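= Tokenised fold =
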Amino acid sequence: MSNSRNMGPVDVRPEDYSHLSERGQALVDRFRSRVVDFADSDSPKRLLEVGCGQGWLLSELQRALPQASISGIDIREEAIEYARTLAPQADLRVADAVALPFGDSDYDLVVCSEVLEHVADPARVIDEIKRVGSGHAVFSVPYEPWFWAANLARGKYFKSLGNCPGHIHHFTRGRFERLLARHYTDVEVVSSFPWLIADVRW
């Protein structure tokens, strides 16, 4: 998985985990690969990533699913600008995850990776994903308390006990499963340390 710093606007710092150690990079690569594997399980023709950020995962999805029409949204204009350089074939737009600018059941698959921990009301985002999706979604969140512990082990965020800036929700495996089970009939959660990945259907 590419971590090139030569892509995207020069005045935007890449959010590509390239600051991590070799071992940290390996964990990220394994995590992203597992998300892509879940996404590819039904060979979707229409895929949306909610909260695509700078497009690092979206570009992996685009390579893995060349037959798919891929869209992505993020609330930050500068992130979408960067994502356009990594996933030039995707339909990318600035939008809020709690009010997705798409019709009901527009997408075969919706991916929402590392978003729920940042938003004020995760349930609203989950409901919107269910609305625009047609039966399959993949979510991921940091796996607490292990994500905190991993940050502390690499000397980060001591003042917040390992909590990353911007993380306003914290998910143990049980809390993540219970949240998703309130919205979806079939929920499978697996760990890819230090993340949790959920494959959900309805």
Remarks:
- Helices lie at 22-40, 56-64, 77-86, 122-132, 146-153, 173-181.
- Residues 1-10 have pLDDT under 50 and may be disordered.
